[in-house]
Specification:
mainly alpha; 2 strands; single chain; 60 helices; Cullin-associated and neddylation-dissociated 2 (putative); ubl conjugation pathway; two-stranded antiparallel sheet
């Protein structure tokens, strides 16, 4: 016998002791043993342990019984399936026992077993449990057994519903329970049905729904009607989209029952409406008006109370709080349930607002006034829901105006919100002084949302709101949460409104906020310091004193006290430093003797590892103050400490330190001695590194004063292939500053730059621009130097030509014949890279000397067909870089030349012509855009494709004068999606994709007409598939692939930019087809599916069963053994992409309630290959399938 078996055997012997303490201790020891991962039980030990624990469930001592139940949890995963079945059989038998205590403990045991049961052994065990529980439910004489059985059934279906196959028998046993005379049984049956519907088949779901409809049509008693309607609401919430196909029958039925005089029934009706709206927003569209009218009608349903408008208006300010309470008590009645009707109708309205952003404007005209009128609701909980619904309306407005993909037009909803501001403030400002904390919190949340949605809208109403804020900060009965909410709202108010609005109220506002700084609760102190920081900025914007008010007596002492304290919360420490920094920055001239103490504390905090980042930012703020604060007392030591920070690995600290040093050098250069700056300068060169371009950019932008940077580090950065954008601009400014400062011994020269021996191809252009910056003082001498290098090796020659172009871009070389000759000579080179560089150089030279080069260039394009492509590249550079005013005189000649070449058979040349036409159109859109449109009707297919591609290049990602013209005419260009020529349709899709990505506003209004044509292009067309014979082999060519690919790329872009304009279910139909298409398209649709899973989980769940099979097919397909390496790699990449989509689907809540998805998740777990791919794609173990 092994040591484990021997130890277990001893414990089992002790469990039979007559002493209850022995039994308790032995059971406890057994539980500790079972919790060890390493324990392995042999078959005999398994049987004995199970038998003993089941026996202990009947122990006379309650503590031993409870401990035995706890032992079942670790035991279930340690024993084999037959022993689990034994446990389940015994527990189910005990559940029907006459002994109540044994029934209860066995019920707990069954719940424990279900919670811990491994998935691998769940099916057979669940079948046993179900058969026994169905029998227990049939015992009508004992309600407690029925209730426990229904509870356990709910637990089992919640965990294993998708893995069991006997849903039909469960449904047939649960439906009769809905007619039970006991309400508790009916409610638990509804819960069990709720767990059953997500995982049952569509046929069973239809059977259940039809049963409920049939029963409701028989006009049952009101209590039964309540049960059926409540069941409808539950299965809609749990079953989601499935209820959509039955809505046409359900809605009229539920609407009819809202007319029955029963408050609870009406509540359940509105809960059902809410579930329908949230789960099936599309199918509910025809019924939205009906449901909205019902909600508006019943949200005011309060038969036992008379809301007298006049009395409320006149007396609400003067009435005493006590009288208010008395009045409420007079009208409140324990039997009055009308508040439930009002609350459920308001929640239903909130669901409408949250799911139908497209109806936002109509909600402002219909729902908004109704909600405003309910702000005076007498029931506190209902009033909180009114505030929540109105906040949802404001949130939708903000989302609609802030997101590019929203289909709401312009800024109309924010404008509608703005119009309601006076009414909102009028309704809320009195409630801000009410005793009800819940109401005040709702008011502050709503007002905060309003300030975010329409910044500045409360400007005229600040005097009305301030008393309410002050009341919540000073009232002794106010809770901590209430104070934090009030301060948070006040902070938002200060940030979103101009300072002058608050200045007249400073003497009233400061004392309560300052008293909150002294509060004992750290969160209140922290929030109050944040508000005080903003108040200081308000007091003295841009250094101007507001009305002679001196805030120092109010603010300084309490903030100083918090600043000095070291035994306080980290958040308070940081905000105290920041607040005092703002005080010094804006009110430093009021602080005389105190200033040195404050600065010395800042220096201490700078040396502290915990507060150093906040201190760095604060010193940056103070050093840039317009009050010219004297920092000479701390500068030498501060510079030394800041220099040491540049060696730290903390990136935020490094960037903050560089910003601080820049501010100090800029504003306090006279106070800094060169010796004090040396430690800092010594650290700078090492920071210039391509591994962190942003730090390099900040460094170059801020420290053009030091030639120490011109070491090998800067040279390496100039040669880096990663140098671009802001970092490149900073380097160029830095090099020009060096040239102007006439610094000697730079460490590298233009000549060394042009020597491009070991340069990466990506760095040629950036190095050329750096050469031009260094040569800005003597361009002609540089040109001579560069020209010498044009005969060098190829790489140096490419760099020399590019450098020549960049030097000439400034116009300093004029129309030099020598330079022109060198460039034209390079056009004849055998190297493609040299020819491309010469093309760029010619374009850059022409930008600097337009009149010298452009006529020559246009002449050459016509005269030299072989060089046409390169010369068009040069022309494109000219059109892109020259200002419109310079190009205007040449527009007609350029346009005529481009039109001559718009039907060129070479696609590359045609694309270049299109790009030139598009960019040229931006020079004079009113005149040139109609010409493009005209050519659509007159031109050949090649000309039409060129015109459509040209339009693509007129769409830029920033506001442009052409936008309004383009919006009016883009519909005509998109009609080419119906063109007979497949290539024209492809370029039309590419243009549409560009518009959707860069300027979605152009095409948002056209989605209704464009999408059918877009979706048609996603279909595989057999007439475009042909077979090509290649020797003995036949190869299939799909001429429609490029068009389909372009269509799917458009769909992917629309997900980000125009989601609200899409019918997601229709969109998913085409995604589903794409999952079975070509490799490239499948890769795209996997990405789309993952995106949709996070953006529209409800819609994805509706289509889940159809989406799983293509994913499963991709993940399980294997490449034939004799295939080439590329085929294996492509299939592996496909599998990984498909698995990413699966991971995104599994992250959707309740997704594994779908039987097909649960089956697929099990397949992934059981297949080692798929499981390893899945695990590598998931960084966190919790995101895996469970």
């Amino acid at each position: 016998m092994s040591s484990v078996s021997y130890h277990i055997s001893n414990l089992l012997d002790k469990m039979t002791s007559t002493d209850k303490d022995f039994r308790f201790m032995a059971t406890n020891d057994l539980m500790l043993e079972l919790q060890k991962d390493s324990i392995k039980l042999d078959e005999d030990s398994e049987r004995k342990v199970v038998s003993m624990l089941l026996k202990l469930l009947e122990d006379k001592n309650g503590e031993v019984q409870n401990l035995a139940v706890k032992c079942l949890a670790p035991l279930v995963s340690k024993v084999k399936e037959p022993q689990v079945e034994t446990m389940v059989d015994t527990l189910c038998l005990n559940m029907t026992s006459d002994k109540e205590q044994l029934r209860d403990i066995s019920s707990m045991g069954l719940k424990t077993v279900i919670a811990e049961l491994p998935l691998s052994s769940s099916a057979s065990v669940c079948k046993k449990i179900t058969s026994q529980l169905i029998g227990a439910m049939g015992k009508q004489d004992d309600v407690s057994v029925q209730l426990e059985a229904l509870d356990i059934l709910s637990d089992m279906l919640g965990r294993f519903g998708a893995l069991v196959s006997f849903h039909g028998s469960l449904l047939s046993s649960l439906l009769p329970q809905l007619t039970s005379s006991r309400m508790a049984v009916r409610k638990r049956s509804i819960l069990a049905l709720g767990h059953l519907v997500p995982c049952c088949s569509p046929a069973l779901f239809s059977q259940l729904t039809q049963h409920l409809l049939t029963e409701l049509s028989k006009a049952p008693p009101t209590s039964m009607t309540r049960t059926y309607i409540q069941c409808l609401a539950t299965i809609s919430r749990q079953g989601g989209h499935r209820v959509g196909e039955h809505l046409e029958k359900l809605i009229p039925m539920v609407v009819k029952f809202t007319g029955v005089e029963d408050d609870e029934l009406r509540e359940y009706c509105f809960q059902a409406f809410e579930a329908f709206i949230r789960r099936c927003p599309k199918e509910m569209s025809p019924h939205v008006a009906t449901v909205t009218q019902l909600c508006l009608k019943f949200m005011t349903f309060d038969p036992n109370y008379n809301y007298d408008d006049n009395e409320e208006e006149e007396d609400s300010m003067d009435i005493e709080d006590g009288l208010d309470e008395e009045t409420d008590d007079e009208y409140s009645d324990d039997d009055d349930l009308s508040w439930k009707v009002r609350r459920s109708s308001i929640k239903c309205l909130e669901a409408l607002i949250s799911t139908r952003r497209d109806l936002l404007l109509s909600f402002y005209s219909s729902v908004c006034p109704a909600l405003l009128s309910r702000f005076r609701e007498r029931e506190e909980n209902v009033r909180a829901d009114v505030f929540a619904a109105f906040s949802a309306l404001l949130r939708q407005t903000r989302a609609g105006s802030g997101r590019p993909g929203v289909s709401v037009v312009g800024s109309e909803p924010p404008g509608a919100a703005c119009l309601q501001v006076p009414a909102i403030v009028k309704a809320l400002h009195k409630q801000l002084k009410e005793k009800s904390i819940k109401s005040r919190q709702g008011c502050f949340c709503l007002l905060t949302e309003l300030a975010h949605t329409v910044p500045g809208a409360l400007q005229e109403h600040i005097p009305a709101l301030i008393p309410g804020v002050i009341f919540s900060l000073t009232d002794r009965s106010t809770t901590s949460t209430m104070r934090i909410d009030a301060l948070s709202f006040f902070h938002v108010l200060l940030l979103s409104h101009p300072p002058q609005v608050f200045q007249p109220h400073m003497q009233v506002l400061l004392p309560p906020v300052v008293s909150c700084i002294e509060d004992t609760f750290y969160k209140i102190t922290s929030e109050a310091l944040l508000v005080t920081q903003q108040l200081i900025r308000v007091m003295r914007p841009q250094g101007q004193t507001a009305g002679g008010f001196d805030p120092k007596p109010f603010v300084f002492s309490v903030t100083m006290k918090r600043l000095k304290a070291t035994d306080i919360d980290q958040e308070v420490k940081e905000r105290a430093i920041s607040c005092m920094g703002h005080m010094v920055c804006y009110l430093g001239d009021h602080l005389k003797t105190e200033l040195s103490d404050i600065l010395s504390i800042f220096l201490e905090r700078l040396k502290n590892e915990i507060t150093r980042l906040t201190a760095v930012r604060t010193i940056t703020l103070v050093s840039a103050s317009p009050l010219k604060i004297d920092l000479s007392t701390i500068l030498p030591e501060a510079l030394s400490v800041l220099g040491s920070f540049l060696r730290k690995n903390q990136r935020a600290l490094k960037l903050g330190t560089l910003a601080c040093l820049t501010a100090l050098v800029t504003h306090h250069a006279a106070s800094i001695k060169p010796a004090a700056l040396e430690p800092v300068l010594a650290e700078l060169p090492a920071l210039v590194d391509e591994s962190d371009m942003h730090v390099s950019q900040v460094l170059c932008a801020g420290f053009t004063i030091s030639s120490n940077l011109c070491s090998k580090y800067t040279g390496e950065l100039v040669h880096s292939p990663l140098l671009q954008g802001g970092a490149l601009a900073a380097i160029l400014d830095f090099l020009q500053a060096l040239v102007q400062s006439k610094t000697s011994n730079l460490g590298f020269s233009p000549q060394s730059c042009v020597d491009g021996g070991a340069l990466h191809r990506q760095s040629y252009h950036s190095v050329a621009r750096c050469v031009a910056a260094l040569c800005s003082a003597a361009p002609k001498e540089t040109a001579a130097t560069v020209i010498k290098n044009t005969g060098s090796p190829e790489s140096a020659r490419v760099l020399a030509l590019l450098s020549l172009g960049e030097v000439g871009r400034s116009g300093s070389l004029g129309g030099s014949k020598e330079v022109q000759g060198v460039i034209l000579e390079a056009f004849s080179s055998t190297s493609e890279e040299v020819k491309t560089a010469s093309s760029c150089a010619l374009g850059s030279m022409a930008v600097g000397s337009l009149n010298d080069y452009l006529p020559f260039m246009l002449k050459e394009i016509s005269a030299q067909p072989r060089r046409q492509y390169l010369l068009l590249h040069s022309l494109k550079e000219v059109i892109s870089a020259c200002p419109g005013s310079s190009l205007s005189p040449h527009v007609e000649s350029i346009w005529a030349l481009l039109f001559q070449n718009c039907e060129c058979p070479e696609e590359g040349t045609r694309n270049l012509v299109a790009e030139c036409l598009g960019k040229l159109t931006l020079v004079n859109p009113a005149q040139l855009l109609p010409r493009l449109k005209q050519q659509l009707k007159a031109g050949s297919p090649l000309a039409r494709s060129t015109m459509v591609t040209a339009v693509k290049f007129t769409i830029v990602d920033h506001p442009a004068p052409i936008d309004s013209l383009l919006k009016d005419s883009i519909g005509d260009f998109l009609k080419t999606l119906q063109d007979n020529d497949i290539n024209v349709r492809r370029v039309a899709l590419v243009m549409f994709n560009s518009a959707a990505h860069n300027k979605p506003s152009l095409i948002r209004g056209l989605l209704g007409t464009v999408l059918p044509h877009l979706y048609r292009e996603t279909q595989i067309r057999k007439d475009l598939i042909r077979e090509v014979e290649m020797g003995p082999f036949k190869h299939t060519v799909d001429d429609g692939l490029d068009v389909r690919k372009a269509a799917f790329e458009c769909m992917y872009t629309l997900l980000d930019s125009c989601l609200d304009g899409l019918d997601v279910l229709q969109f998913l139909d085409h995604v589903e087809e794409g999952l079975k298409d070509h490799y490239d398209i499948r890769m795209l649709t996997f990405l789309m599916l993952a995106r949709l899973a996070s953006l529209c989980p409800a819609a994805v769940l509706q289509r889940l069963d159809r989406l799983v099979e293509p994913l499963r097919a991709t993940c399980t397909t294997k490449v034939k053994a004799g295939s080439v390496k590329q085929e294996f790699e492509k299939q592996e990449e496909l599998r990984r992409s498909a698995m990413r989509a699966v991971a995104a689907l599994l992250a959707v809540p309740e997704v594994e309630r779908s039987p097909s998805m649960a089956d697929f998740a099990n397949q992934i777990r059981s297949n080692a290959d798929m499981a390893s791919i899945y695990q590598t794609l998931n960084s966190t173990p919790s995101s895996g399938p469970t």
